[in-house]
Automatic annotation (TrEMBL), chains A, B:
This is DNA-binding transcriptional regulator, HxlR family. It holds the Pfam family HxlR. It comes from Flaviramulus basaltis. The keyword Transcription regulation applies. The lineage of its organism: Bacteria, Pseudomonadati, Bacteroidota, Flavobacteriia, Flavobacteriales. The keyword Oxidoreductase does not apply. One of its GO terms (molecular function) is DNA binding. Residues 13-117 form the HTH hxlR-type domain.
Amino acid sequence: MEIINQIDEVKRCSVQYVLALNDTLNVINGKWKLPIIGSLMYGKKRFKELERNIDKISPRMLSKELKDLENNGVVERTVYNTTPVTVEYELTESGKTFHSVLDVMVEWAVEHRERTLEL
Amino acid sequence: MEIINQIDEVKRCSVQYVLALNDTLNVINGKWKLPIIGSLMYGKKRFKELERNIDKISPRMLSKELKDLENNGVVERTVYNTTPVTVEYELTESGKTFHSVLDVMVEWAVEHRERTLEL
DNA sequence: CCGAATCCCGCCTGATACTG
DNA sequence: CAGTATCAGGCGGGATTCGG
């Protein structure tokens, strides 16, 4: 058991660990990434729909954040040749599984609150 | 199964969920929180030790971030009446369990890389 | 409709110096 | 040692305008 913990600590210390952690942080960072992901959890949406769904976001920010998420492989963008053009955004498979990360974050916070209030 | 997923979605939509998520985000945000937590994972440390351990952090930032983490119940501060004063920082119980959140973030990132490279 | 380009501001952060 | 004080710079992000 002791040796197991040491192995885990080594793993946690590795460069790979830190790099992977950064990947996840990049999906989270900024003010709008999570609201966008949250909105897309319910299915594909168009640009304007997202803009309406997410409170107070400007098209500039929405565009920038969507591009980030696309580069990170979390969101997929599809353009349809209609006039005017229609663009749809949806979560990739990885994007869909991201809720598991969020769930753990929430779980920790809830337990943390209980532990903190106990004092 | 379908009904279960709906319950989960409702849960994820609730105000409580978002608030808890924010709690966790506050523990993560900024450039220095995770390095500090990581450094304290190996045991209690004094201010100067942390400053030496964490690359390029200024005392100003270290002080501020430690104060944040203390307010969030993740770090505990102990002052000893020596001359000159000795101050030790250590993770609270919640702080120690936080690695479980980090592990899940890393796990997601690793799987995400595999899925993305497959294409 | 779907953005790109531009301008601008606040605050977060870094650097440096100083105190109990 | 363990921080605080002060100033300056950069960058995230808001507002607005314009183009395909």
